[in-house]
Design a protein that fits this description.
The longest helix has 11 residues. The chain has 7 helices and 13 strands. Strand 4, helix 5 and strand 5 form a beta-alpha-beta unit. Helix content is 23%, strand content 31%. The strands form 3 sheets. It has a 7-stranded mixed β-sheet, sandwiched between helices. A 4-stranded antiparallel β-sheet has the order 2-1-8-9. Strands 12-13 form a two-stranded antiparallel sheet. The chain starts with 12 loop residues before the first helix and ends with a strand. It has 247 residues and is an alpha/beta fold.
């Protein structure tokens, strides 16, 4: 799989500044002026009880797609779980590593470690919208998971299936070019994943989640080749075949 170009917000100063400060305001802005608030304070805090419940449901090794500042990867690492975050933002990956988590600066559509061998893939904090094409993202996740693996997605709190082109903004300045995004409620996610087993759906703390299990019977994915990673991290394939990134 070829490396993709990072979206415009990956290097957005306002996004990096918000992560460094641990607070917003920060928004996704549609061309008509509609603003979707980004919960920077929650993302930069420790995993809360709602997050912990999600992590309790994870199976096997965990890949956190769009890990942001790394609260979930860090919590899993503290539990002794094998987990890796991927994010296109250098600031996000650096923050994750400082918390003690393993992370790569990479798009989910790039070549990743352990393809076809992850036990759980997380799409938290609305990351089911990455790339603006939920069906393509779901298909990509299927290729990352081991047969029978689990996808846990945080969906929109309303029944919506919307394609957007947005900017990132701190309400004072707008950073970079527009990029594609999507807002997807649980019913829409099910429509985009017709071949998956619907395992669970639940609401907590004003947030909604769905867990789906891959019905893929076998994996033809080859182990990923070594690739350069940031923060002096290197990929390795331990004897048990588990996908791991270590510093």
């Amino acid at each position: 799989m070829s490396t993709t170009t990072a979206p415009p917000w990956a290097a957005a100063d306002s996004y990096a500044a918000a992560l460094r400060a641990g607070r917003g305001p920060l928004f996704l802005r549609r061309d008509d002026g509609w603003l979707l608030p980004l919960e920077v304070e929650r993302w930069c805090s420790r995993a809360d009880p709602v997050d912990l419940d999600v992590l309790d449901r994870c199976e096997g090794t965990v890949l956190d797609v769009g890990c942001g500042p790394g609260r979930l990867v860090a919590e899993l690492a503290a539990r002794g779980r094998t987990a890796l975050g991927v994010d296109v933002s250098e600031a996000a990956v650096d923050h994750t590593v400082r918390l003690g988590g393993a992370a790569l600066r990479r798009s989910v559509f790039d070549r990743l470690p352990g393809e076809g061998r992850w036990g759980t893939v997380l799409l938290m904090d609305g990351n089911v919208g990455i790339g603006g094409d939920p069906r393509a993202l779901v298909e990509r996740v299927a290729g990352l998971l081991a047969p029978g693996g689990l996808m846990i997605a945080e969906t929109a709190p309303v029944d919506v299936d919307e394609r957007l082109r947005v900017h990132i903004t701190d309400a004072r300045t707008t950073a970079g070019a527009r990029f594609p995004w999507a807002r997807v409620g649980t019913p829409a996610l099910y429509r985009h994943a017709p071949e998956w087993e619907r395992t669970a759906q639940w609401s907590a703390g004003g947030r909604r989640f769905a867990a789906l299990r891959s019905r893929r019977a076998s994996s033809s994915a080859e182990p990923p080749k070594r690739a350069a990673v940031i923060s002096s991290q290197r990929e390795r394939n331990p004897s048990d075949g588990s996908p791991v990134a270590s510093r």
